[in-house]
Amino acid sequence: MAIESDQVVGIDLGTTFSAIAYVDSGGRVRTIPNREGELTTPSAVLIEPDRTVHVGRKALRARVKQPNRVAVAFKRDMGEKFYRETIGGREFSPEALSALVLKKLVGDATAVIPSIGGAVVTVPAYFGDARRKATQDAGRIASIEVLDIINEPTAAALANAFRQYLHRGGDTTRFELAAIATTAPSTTLVFDLGGGTFDVTIIRIEGERLDVLATGGEVRLGGIDFDVRLVTHFCDEFVRRHGIDLRDSPESLAQIQAFCEMAKITLSSRTQTVIVGERYGKQLHLPISRRQLEELTADLLARTQISVENLLEDALLTWDRIDDILLVGGASRMPVVADMLNRISGKKPNMDQAPDEIVAHGAAIHAAILHMRTSSAVSVAVDGSRTITTPEVGVEPASDTVAVPDLFDQKVVDATRKVRMTDVNSHGLGVVVRDSRENTVVNSVIIPKNTPLPTERVKVFGTEAANQRIVRLRILEGDTRDPRGCTQIGECVIRHLPKGLPKGSPVEVSFRYDTSGRIHVRAVELKHSTTAEVELVRNTGFDQVDLTRLTNAVSEIDIE
Ligand code: AMP
């Protein structure tokens, strides 16, 4: 592999596995193996009693013997402000643990790229603001310049577009990035069932444009949940036969979790396997069939089906408008997933040849696109709040006179500069209002989910009481009518309203969601034009002091 300085990389920071990739000067996307020679690194962190930190395979293996010293699946808790994982008696935030994974990936990658100039990190499309911000924070804690956050399915679709181009006889040796411009128009449904999260996204690719039409999913649904069903099945059977509950011992539980995951993976290629467990000299050899696994997890699969069907409905599309179903994420390898999609769509889903790397590849392509535009007039947001922050639609490609970093061949640069991407918001944005007919507070959605970005929407409400002097708007992220099903992400307060305003005086609330991911809220009391504006400062995440403290702490850790 060529050694290039100040390269940018794409990182798939997965719940169970992570990967890092880059685009070389000829436009080829390459996964960078870790120090152990693996293309993917388990997202597992082991902290030894002497405070030595291991990330990856060794940590995952240690889980069986030292379950209290190993953290896994912490991505699911990203952005949960008060969540802490206790490892060996010390508390770690999911962001700090993710930073250790990032540090391992980037550190190992320096064997190929001595100087990494920045990274695009992927997140599930269904991540809300707090989780996106947390992913950005993890990058900062790892001292990585996060160029952007991109949605995993979008990254997969981007990488897939290039692969399709190659399948159709595109130049395999050079100019992979030119592919986007010559790909036939197509609408792809990306079904991404990873270790911990589930995303489904519909993406339209036409010429140099890549538009996300709609996105949905669940933050807490993935391969791990399928493992849990097998674990419960096995442990219940162990209790029934031997009166011993393996779940009482963290070591036995960790071991059985590992065996059940292996059994689940085996059942993707075989129809029958055996799970073996042992405690206090008692053993259980439990045969398990693919059919049984499917029965134990039928409701989980049904949840993915409901998300897919709801998404099509939201996007006002029917299956005949979907050209391609792309399976991404390790858990999509379960045959029942393709069967279900085939049954409901009448189409044969397509599993990418490198499903574990495709997301990192897409992130690397996005990083390359951003890098080539670093000298153009378009700004790139780094606040972690949104998905794609490539230039706005309609912005002309940077002029030829703009200096271009010499990392890429000019032809690659020319082709890539034309690529345009637009995205949608994955969650609705609204405010808490009182519904006078029901006399309850409700979430009044102002920007519905799956609205193409950027956007600006306005709604008019009435004041709640006569002589009201202050209007306090609680801003919500979420789609349920009941505010308790949503997350409050900020407040906007109009003070000093004139005295004597009658009840029901109109207040206009406008939300602007810009391409750099900032949510701008403006409220105006219409009679006297009393105004309040707020640019949302998310009330989760770390303050600067915490960030600096964590960054210093992580920078001092050598990852073995
Ligand atoms: P990812 O986050 O995309 O790497 O997906 C990891 C998840 O995929 C884990 O839950 C794995 O157990 C699961 N997985 C990986 N390979 C397979 C397979 N062949 N069959 C079923 N699940 C798999």
What characteristics describe this protein?
Actin, Chain A, domain 4, 4 domains, six-stranded mixed sheet, single chain, 560 residues, Nucleotidyltransferase, domain 5, binds adenosine monophosphate, disordered N terminus, alpha+beta, 27 strands
What would you note in describing this structure?
This protein has 560 residues and is an alpha+beta fold. The chain folds into four domains: 7-176 and 353-368 and 546-555, Nucleotidyltransferase, domain 5; 223-296, Alpha-Beta Complex (Actin, Chain A, domain 4); 373-422, no CATH class; 425-544, Substrate Binding Domain Of DNAk, Chain A, domain 1. It has 13 helices and 27 strands. The chain has helices at 57-65, 94-109, 129-141, 152-167, 179-182, 223-242, 250-269, 290-296, 298-314, 335-345, 358-372, 410-417, 544-555, and strands at 7-13, 17-23, 29-31, 41-42, 44-47, 53-55, 70-72, 85-87, 90-92, 116-123, 146-151, 186-193, 198-206, 209-218, 272-279, 282-289, 324-328, 350-351, 420-422, 429-435, 440-447, 455-462, 471-477, 487-494, 506-513, 519-525, 530-535. Strands 1, 2, 3, 4, 10 and 11 form a six-stranded mixed β-sheet that branches. β17 (324-328), α10 and β18 form a beta-alpha-beta unit. The longest helix has 20 residues, at 223-242. The two termini are 24 Å apart. 47% of the residues are buried. The model is unreliable at 1-5, 172-176 and 375-405 (pLDDT under 50).
